[in-house]
Every structure is written in C-alpha cells, then in structure tokens.
Amino acid sequence: MPHGARRKGILRPSCQPLLIALAMLLPVAAQAGGPPGGWSVGAAAVVSGKPYGDADYDLIPVPFFGYEGERVFWRGLAAGWRGPSSEHVQTAALVRANMQSFDGSDDAVLEGMDARRRTAEGGVQISGGPPWLRLQASAYQELLGRHDGQVLELQASVPVPVGDWVVIPSVGGDWQSADMTDYYYGVRESEQDESIGRPAYSPGAAFNRTVGLGLRYRGHDGMGVIVQVRREFFGGTLRDSPIVEGGGRWSGIVGVSWRL
After folding, report:
1. Domain limits of the chain?
2. Per-residue pLDDT tens digits for 65-105
3. N or C, fewer C-beta in 10 Å, the chain?
4. pTM, entire model
5. Which tops the pLDDT comparison, 3 or 36?
6. Which fold has domain 18-259?
7. How many angstroms separate the CA atoms of 75 and 87, rounded?
C-alpha cells in the first residue's frame, strides 16, 4: 500500500454507510412501547472511519425525523412496510439510502479516480427470536444503476436489561456481490497508476465480519438515548485492495430522540 500525502486531523460533515445504521437504530430508542409510535425527532453525532488510504475519521452531525405506524415506517434514511408477522417473527419490505461514496480529492491514493456516488437499495428483512436473542437477516438490491450489486446481511444480538438501560452486544456479517465491491473498493483499468502503486484491481464478492456494542435508554417521557460502537473486519479481497488501508473500520454513534 502506497502512502501519499496524509490528510491529517480532518473531521468533516460527510455521509458514510454508518448513517444507515443510525437511521435504523434511533427510532428504536425513541419508542418505549413498540409500534405504532407516531412521530419522533432527534439529533446525533456520528464518528465514522474512512477505509481509503490515510483518510481520517469523519465527525457527522445528523438530524433525525421518523414515523412508526401500524404498517408504514420512516426511519431517517430508510422507509418501508411491515409484512406478515407473528409474536416471534417479523418481516418487512424497505428502501434505504446507501451513503457510501468517495471523491478523488478525499486522499492521495484516490487522486485521478472517478467518484463513487451514493445510491438507494431496496430489499426485504426478517427478524425474530426469543426476548433474550434477536436474529435478523436482510437482502438488498441496488436500485439506481450505480453498480447493480447486492448485499446480504446477518446479525445476532443479545439485549441485556440493566435498570432503565439495555446493553446490546452483537455479532454479524455481510456478503457483498462482486459488482458492489468493484464499485466501492476496486480500481478500473482506466484508473490504474503504477507511479503511486495503484494497479487495476477487482476484489470480487466479499464477506465482512462485524462486532458491536450498544447502549439504549427508553424513558417514560418519550426520550431515548442510544450509544453504539461497531467494528467491521474486511474480508481478504477488500483488505488487498490498493486503495484500502488496514483490515477494517471503527464507527460509533451517540444520539438523543424524543417521541412527539
């Protein structure tokens, strides 16, 4: 991996894939009794590592607006419809934003590369399990023709009540198709630059592992607080990309919301 000029100490308001997690997690903190929860508003601070070259962490202030109805929900950057459900299994169809992107100016290792743009994904989600164990599986298809790729996500979490708080450790993984990884982590033939050690590269499909720890507070006055820390471990083909630095990425959220 070549090391160009570093972009030190940059904390800037750009959007990362972590915003998707924020959009999904904040409404949970806002609800004390589950859907329907009506409208909620809030704000958060997101810290997200950038995996490209030596780019630093981004600090992202995020306003939040959401709605939870009997069937329809809007969670910041995601919206959907609850499908057939039972006491232990829930299903949903949804559309969400994927805010992952980069420009050639983000880091020296990206100079001369075409920008990768944000997009939208549509898919289905199924979740369930006993109260002490929550299992979730999701499948998404890219909708705007940026890369036409797919992603499959699996997660297991264990909610542990501690007074008014809930501690939520989790483990999971996501499979990303070759079309998706080529777009975000690959180097096209027209973008290769041997002078900085950036050959053409196609990662192929990849599986990434994740671990996380969350803290959630749900007050009787409608106030919610959420703290989330997450570590993503890249699969080998992503780690080998000439534009990726390190074996993964740390990210975190601190947010407050109020149910109206």
Report:
1. 18-259
2. 788 898 999 877 789 999 988 888 999 999 998 878 888 88
3. C
4. 0.80
5. 36
6. Lipocalin (2.40.128)
7. 22
